[in-house]
Amino acid sequence: MKKRLLLCLVCLLTLAAALGGCRGGKSGSSSSITIGIGQDIEESLDPHKMTAAGTKEIFFNVYEGLYKPDCDGNIEPAVASGYEVSEDFLEYTFELRDGVKFHDGSLVTAEDVEYSIRKFAGIDGGTPTMAAFSVITDVAVVDDSHVKVTLSAPSQDLIPSLATVEAAIIPKSNEDPDHVAIGTGPYKYVSHSPMENVIMELNEDYYGEKGYIDEVVFKICTNPDTIAMELNGGSIDMICHLTEAQVNSISEEDYNVLKGSMNLVQAMYLNHNFEPFADGRVRQAMCYAIDEEEVRKFVADPPGEAIGSSIYPNFSKYFDESLVGLYPKDTEKAKELLEEAGYPDGFSFSITVPSNYQQHVDTALAISQQLAEVGITAEVKTVDWDTWLSETYLGRNYEATVIGVDAPTLTASALLSRFVSDADNNFTNYNNPIFDSAYEKASTCMTDEEVELYKACERILAQDAANVYIQDLPEFVAISKDYEGYEFYPMYIIDVSKIKPVEAE
Q1: Which of 91, 274, 357, 419, by CA, is between 20 and 30 Å from 464?
Q2: What's the rounded Cα separation, in Å, for the pair 112 and 324?
Q3: What does the alpha-carbon distance between residue 361 and residue 359 come to, in Å, rounded to a whole number?
Q4: Phi and psi (nearest 5°) for 118?
């Protein structure tokens, strides 16, 4: 009997409710779609303050940087039309695209770009929104169409990182970005009703290819038990991050089900400030105690993809397949390591998991059962999403957690930089000078050697058992047969602009 799964972390339940016919700008009539999402958005609408993958996933449609990714993982010009770089890779001069408008109707200026970069790079105080921006030392307006960015060291990650919500270009004139969302993307932010919905509308002045849907309603659905009911009842038209049980409950007459992968590194992340986890032998013992394949099969059918370290398989050039299976299940080896570390009778700890992502809860339960075989008692504690975000992730007040970490850019640093000892997003408190040195070398390399250097960083994390790596979860998307065009990205993104109503025959 197939077991019931529910939703995964960084998951967002996605698109839904088709209320109209064809879209206005391309066919002359209006349309609306309702999108289910698994968590409410963060309080601040400032893209440079957003931390939750679920919030950034939908605001990808509102905010743009100088560049943006496409569904194949290519980095394409957005607010910028191109750039020139100095021979030493320390000065980038960006040319701005002509005629790009903010959602308030004002034209994007070089001053807006300078202001935004200084803000998200933390030049005038504050913390860079991404590690790649820590090398930005200065930003200057060259003329009305050009902005120069100066770096302290070369960076392979600069351009891909400029294609993220964290690097959004926003108007300098917006005095309250926490509450007023003004971007340049294909959709405009309209309103937010806490724990109810987020509403967006088509940006008719968008410089690029316009969307097909006039109004998008992101309906907040925090109870995974009601998802199939809402789909079958017609209150939402499309949803992502479904479980097998939910897929089996959906009407095949009304919905198409698409399969991809979530592009996450799901692991049991360990707080290295918790005494037992400071000892590498304990961490390795836990890895040997767990049969990762059995956990994956317990959580999903078909199961997710094995990983082995902090890069998922869709990062094909960076993914090191040799790390998969580095710790085959070996109960005796696990017990020997525990005894060497001074825990012959095991120890107890808690795994804190957000309750609205059942796949993570199921993973934690499976891990707990297997750890018991070597004398380790793991209590699974579920908390609501807001508590997990504030206390576990931001507050680092936890012992272990099961979650999926996403990558906002297709760069290895997006997944590896959080393990640098002094990184602001190092929520595991991992501290390894060998890793820090290897990461610095990789992140400043401007040749093809950077791929192997990043793989060396992966190996350090895996061999040091920095965390207990499980999988990249499978992704199921149900979309009403009234709609088509949904595209999977190799990142955690819902691109509403690609979805369109199916024209009546």
Answers
A1: 357
A2: 46
A3: 5
A4: -60, -35
Nearest to 268 by CA among 173, 370, 139: 370
| Contact yes or no for 67/60 (Cβ under 8 A) | no
Beta bridge partners of 472: 305
pLDDT band at 222 (very low <50, low <70, confident <90, very high): confident
Burial 205-233 (b: 16+ CB within 10 A, else e): ebbbebbbbbbbbbbbbbebeebbebbee
Non-local CB neighbours of 135 within 8 Å, separated by 6+ positions:
151, 152, 153, 155, 158
Provide DSSP, 177-206. Answer: TTT-----SSEEEEEEETTTEEEEEE-TT-
Q: 67 or 37, which is more confident? A: 67
pLDDT tens for residues 359-383? 899 999 999 999 999 999 999 999 9
User: Is a pLDDT exceeding 50 seen at residue 10?
Assistant: no
How far, in Å, CA of 248 to CA of 3, rounded?
Answer: 11
Is residue 477 within 8 A of residue 242, CB to CB? The reply is yes
DSSP 98-144: TT-B-TTSPBP-HHHHHHHHHHHTTTTSS--SSGGGGGEEEEEEEET
| Domains observed in the chain | 24-61+185-262+474-501 (3.40.190.10), 67-167 (3.90.76.10), 264-471 (3.10.105.10)
List Cβ neighbours of 161 (8 Å cut-off, separation of 6 or more).
130, 132, 133, 167, 408, 409, 411, 413, 414
Task: Indicate the DSSP class of residue 147.
Answer: E
SS3 339: helix
Choose among 454, 460, 456, 493: nearest CA to 477: 493
Query: Band of the pLDDT at 72, cuts 50, 70, 90?
Result: confident
Average pLDDT, the chain: 90
Q: Please say whether the beta carbons of 240 and 258 come within 8 A.
A: no
Residue 451 CB burial class (10 angstroms; 0-12, 13-18, ≥19): middle
**Over residues 233-245, mean pLDDT:** 85
pTM value? 0.75
Beta-strand ranges (E) seen in 362-456 are 377-383, 400-406
Q: Which of 264, 115, 103, 107 is nearest to 188 (CA)?
A: 103
Are 371 and 402 spatial neighbours (Cβ–Cβ below 8 Å)? no
CA atoms of 316 and 336, how far apart (whole Å): 36
